[in-house]
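Q: Got a minute? One more chain.
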Amino acid sequence: MRFLPGFLHAAAHITAVVETGRVTDHSVSLVANLLTVFLALAIGTRIGYVVAARGTVHQMELVDRHFEGSRQLFERQQEIQREADLHKRSREELKTSYEVLGLWLHQVGQTLDEIYFGAASEEKQMRDKAEALISRRPWEAVSPPAAAASAEFYWSPDVLRKIRELQGPYAQFISQTRLAMTQPESGDALPSSRTEHDAWRHWNEVQSLITGIKTQARDDLMTTAPARQRA
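A: Always. Here it is, folded:
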């Protein structure tokens, strides 16, 4: 403390004055002034320590708030990144599942064509293939294969509903095509023409339903929603 030597000097002076018995007004005034000064210095020093301590606490609080804000910002950024990664992965899985759907729909459409045109063909190989395809159970022919089971999890309820709508028209198409292929040749072409017309009508209906499923799948992929669960 800077004022300590002066305080000690003043105390020695006071002691000397008292010991010598030479107490004068000047000495008393000097002692009083010195005590006042040193008291003020002591109080000021104490106040300085308190203010400095409070300033340090304030600075520490500012630092704590800064690090807390940085921590919260970092955690929020990490959360946003996790959400972005999850969304990206879900979109990739959704896209992959609809690729499986597109491949299967292509196979169904190809089967329809092979049955329809094979039944009307005069080539034995094409007719034999059409007959082999007709022998399959209708609900199996227009139901997604077991290999697509994991992909179905991501297909929208609208897509699944439209797939189920294939079964009725496809069964009618198969029925009319089988009838047209088994009808004996006769001079009356009217029944045969009517049967072929009905087969064509159901073929066209199934093809339209397939196109509707593809359109719905395209709409699903255009959205930004995460992977859907099967309804």
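A: The chain is about 80% helix and 0% strand.
Q: Perfect, thanks.
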